[in-house]
């Protein structure tokens, strides 16, 4: 894996038409505790930005709904996570959906298996959540994607089970009124992501891809999140780099990764990646500032 995305020069790269077009309409992920640190999202994010609200095991639903209500009230589309393995039963799921809808006007959801090994109740996968019918009437449903694979699902290191699940979701999208897309785990290298996206298309999966991108962060922070999220190949490269103390202190920016994907998208407009989804591992403000500096009109805050 190329190491060129670690830059000694922290000045923003020149804005290009390709980068600006690729970053336009980006989304970003927050948690209730990180959202609390932002006084007003309108000072950071472009108008209409989709804000995912990550539901970490143990977070009270009251905190999730309050965060959704607050961010929606500032004029942004909110997309809360529904992790199947932390939801006890259909009654709990129905209660969560009702709260989000009545208190925050939520019409979008990210459905995923969830980052725990043992289900807390009746659900084990996003497909089971879909099959409840409780998300009928939602405007938009996103599902998870793993360009580097997911060993929690495909324990042999392949992708047969994950690919079969995506084909099922593709078929569901064709009979659903909801707009659907694949939101992926964060990645670091353009070429493997391009190959993965093309593999999905060749397999008949044409759901738009919203590619996960790690926002600017310290290397130590990046390694911590990569370990917790199971980012395999990327983690090995990060750990190797961390052995060099002089490089350990260098900041990470997604400049090279974005530029590589943006150039490919510009040359291949039908390419499956539709948008960028940021994981603000170094902080929401830092991430938003990086897009403002590197994304041209794509990064202009709502109240600018």
What can you tell me about this protein's structure?
The chain folds into two domains: 17-216 and 253-295, TIM Barrel; 219-252, no CATH class. Helices cover 40% and strands 17% of the residues. The chain has twelve helices and ten strands. The model is unreliable at 1-15 (pLDDT under 50). It comes from Cypionkella aquatica. Keywords: Oxidoreductase.
Describe the structure using short key phrases.
12 helices, TIM Barrel, alpha/beta, oxidoreductase, two-stranded antiparallel sheet, disordered N terminus, about 300 residues, FAD-linked_oxidoreductase-like
CATH topology of the largest domain: TIM Barrel
Broad structural category: alpha/beta
The number of helical segments is 12
**What portion of the residues fall into strands of 2 or more residues?**
15-25%
Q: Tally the beta strands.
A: 10
Report on the biggest sheet: 8 strands, parallel, barrel
CATH architecture tag of the largest domain: Alpha-Beta Barrel
Structure at a glance:
The chain is α/β, with parallel strands linked by helices and 304 residues long. It is built from twelve helices and ten strands. The longest helix has 15 residues.
List the helices and strands and how they pair.
Elements lengths: L16 H7 L3 E4 L1 H4 L14 E4 L7 H13 L3 E7 L6 H15 L3 E5 L13 H6 L8 E6 L14 H14 L5 E9 L2 H13 L6 E6 L2 E2 H11 L2 H11 L2 H4 L2 E2 L2 H13 L5 E7 L4 H11 L10
Parallel strand pairs: 1-2, 1-10, 2-3, 3-4, 4-5, 5-6, 6-7, 7-10
Antiparallel strand pairs: 8-9
Helix pairs in contact: 1-11, 3-4, 7-11, 8-9
């Amino acid at each position: 894996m190329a190491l060129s995305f670690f830059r000694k020069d922290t000045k923003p790269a020149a804005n290009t038409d390709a980068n600006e077009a690729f970053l336009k309409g980006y989304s970003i992920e927050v948690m209730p505790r990180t959202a609390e640190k932002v006084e007003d999202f309108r000072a950071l994010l472009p108008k209409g930005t989709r804000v995912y609200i990550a539901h970490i095991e143990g977070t009270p639903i009251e905190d999730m709904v309050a965060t959704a209500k607050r961010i929606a009230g500032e004029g942004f589309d909110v997309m809360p996570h529904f992790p199947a393995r932390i939801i006890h039963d259909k009654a709990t799921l129905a209660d969560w959906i009702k709260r989000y809808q009545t208190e925050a006007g939520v019409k979008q959801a990210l459905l995923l298996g969830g980052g725990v090994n043992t289900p807390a109740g009746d659900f084990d996968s996003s497909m089971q959540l879909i099959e409840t019918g409780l998300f009928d009437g939602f405007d938009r449903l996103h599902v998870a994607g793993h360009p580097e694979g997911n060993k929690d699902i495909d324990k042999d290191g392949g992708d047969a089970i994950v690919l079969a699940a995506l084909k099922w979701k593709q078929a569901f999208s064709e009979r659903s009124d909801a707009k659907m897309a694949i939101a992926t785990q964060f990645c670091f290298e353009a070429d493997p992501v391009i190959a993965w996206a093309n593999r999905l298309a060749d397999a008949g999966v044409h759901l738009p891809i919203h590619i996960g991108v790690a926002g600017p962060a310290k290397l130590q922070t990046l390694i911590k999140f990569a370990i917790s999220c199971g980012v395999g190949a990327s983690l090995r490269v990060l750990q190797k780099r961390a052995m060099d103390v002089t490089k350990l202190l260098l900041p990470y920016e997604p400049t090279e990764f974005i530029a590589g994907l943006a150039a490919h998208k510009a040359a291949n407009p039908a390419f499956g990646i539709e948008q960028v989804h940021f994981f603000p591992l170094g902080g929401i403000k830092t991430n938003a500032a990086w897009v403002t500096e590197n994304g041209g009109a794509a990064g202009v805050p709502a109240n600018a």
